[in-house]
Amino acid sequence: MKKLFLLSIIAVFGITGLNAQGEGGQTAEGKILIEANTGNAMIGSTGIMFSSSDGDSSFNLGLDGGYFIMDDLAIKAGLGYGSQSQGDFDTNTISYRLGGKYYVNSMIPVTLDLTGASIKDLDENPLWLGIGAGYAWFLGDNVSIEPGIRYNHSLNEDFTDEGVFQVNIGFALYF
Q: Fewer CB atoms inside 10 A, N or C side of the chain?
């Protein structure tokens, strides 16, 4: 049963990879990338996130955009807005991200970026260096779903000295 499952996964990845390469062009030089990812409340986020528990809630809305400066390599920037409410504590956050995304074999995205946030009424704000990888399932000429993992290393020890590991799902549009 395990072998059948493994063979099924390999077949799906292979067919999807051939399909993505056959379509060609999603990650070609000169293309524009717009993406939304699931986010994490612990770091400044340009992703989409909502959380509610015991009357406390938080949300974030954001997008990343990029431009392919060469085949498979995009320079990216992102912006997000978030709000958090916990008891008497309410705050707003503006987040940003700058970095790059490289698609290995036009289907395995690897990212390296700097993510930061400006949090209202805090003296110290987070700054993270993130690296991530995933897999791009191309659903057509202009759309992909990209599950992935990433690790964010804190660059501001006054805010936190801990890193954050994330599992997320991205949705990307290519023009």
A: N
